[in-house]
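Structure ticket #2291
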Amino acid sequence: MPRRFERLKAVLKSRMSDLTVLLENVEKPHNLSAILRTCDAVGVLEAHAIGMKKNIQTFNSTAQGSQKWVKIRNHLNTEEAVKSLKEKGFQIYGTCLNEKSFDYRDCDFTGPTAFVLGAEKWGLSHEATRLIDKSLLIPMRGMVQSLNVSVAASTLLFEALRQRHIANLIPKAGESLTPEMYDQVLFEWAYPQVASWCKIHGRKYPLLNQTGEIIESLPRNAKFHC
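Resolution: structure written out below.
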């Protein structure tokens, strides 16, 4: 529907490709679902994960379908994931409690920012702690000294959004995405099954007209996915 297509374009134009989370062995579906829902709400384009098994990517009702709008990029290990993000210019912030940690409210998240969040029980690994650029802490007033991983992610992401809003850095016209990335994600959002078919057959995505209709002639078996 044209109205639905306009909604997809409006949301995509406000997505931020320079704000993300890197999840290290976060395995509980409830936490993963809650984190992706927050990513969608804030405007994160895609999330990253380390050591995530395919059978763990089971999203419950907490996600509210947000897994369709926030892609998860899987990485083999922590070093590869951090290296990949640093090569793209991201500042890597890790949530861990030590004498070198900074209050998250005193940090600047207006530049390319990746928050590394650790497993529910153990937190960040020693390797992740070694590789991050800066350690963050969220001050606690009670007996418990840590938050649930999904709550910590929400706290940090909305702080980044607040800072960017004050600095007038929230994209409004897709300026955070390259034209190629914008067209790719828009097609995947509008026609996820056709996009999967194209990937399987090594084809480029078909062109869309202004109302979101596919204007390229497709083989009969592909049309069943439209």
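Closing remark: The helical segments are 2-13, 29-42, 78-87, 126-131, 149-166, 179-190, 192-200, 220-223.
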